[in-house]
Amino acid sequence: MKRSVRILALGVVAVILCMALASCGTLSGTYKNDGLFGFGATEIEFKGSKMYVNMGGIEAEAKYSVKGDKITIEFQDEDEDNADISDIFELLNGEHDFEKGDDYIKIGDVKYKKK
């Protein structure tokens, strides 16, 4: 009896651990938001722990992590004199609400469709 309880307990711990690790997973693929009337179109590509953002022809690379319903984004500010990157991508830096569906992701209030 004690042996079966131990096996059951180990099984429950394994399932909980798998669920916790799955919520910290990485994203993959490319997502796009067409902006307002085509202006401000943004494309985000996820590869491993990095994301590549193209916003109106301006490109930048960032590190990201997802934990539950939050995403944390950190752009590398390699060129602080480049006002385009500093100003535009500053809005995405930090922690945001996150939602992932079958064919979309949502960062903050902005929804991106999978390409």
Describe this structure in words.
The protein is of the alpha+beta class. The chain has one domain: Lipocalin. 24% of the residues lie in helices and 43% in strands. The protein contains 2 helices and 8 strands, in the order αβββββαβββ. The chain has an 8-stranded antiparallel β-barrel. β4 and β5 form a beta hairpin. The longest helix is centred in the first third of the chain and has 22 residues. The radius of gyration is 19 Å and the shape is globular. 12% of the residues are buried. About 13% of the residues have low confidence.
Quaternary structure state of the chains depicted: single chain
> How much of the residues is beta strand, in percent?
35-45%
Give the beta-strand count: 8
| Major sheet summary line | 8 strands, antiparallel, barrel
- Judged by helices, strands and strand pairing, the structural class is alpha+beta
In total, the number of domains comes to 1
CATH architecture: Beta Barrel
Per DSSP, the total helix count is 2
Question: Could you give the distance between the termini?
Answer: 53 Å
Overall helicity: 10-25%
Instruction: Evaluate the radius of gyration.
Output: 19 Å
Contiguous runs where pLDDT drops below 50 for at least 5 residues: 8-15, 17-23
CATH C-level class is: Mainly Beta
Topology:
Layout: H1 2-23, E1 29-33, E2 42-47, E3 50-55, E4 58-67, E5 70-75, H2 83-88, E6 94-100, E7 104-107, E8 110-114
Antiparallel strand pairs: 1-2, 1-8, 2-3, 3-4, 4-5, 5-6, 6-7, 7-8
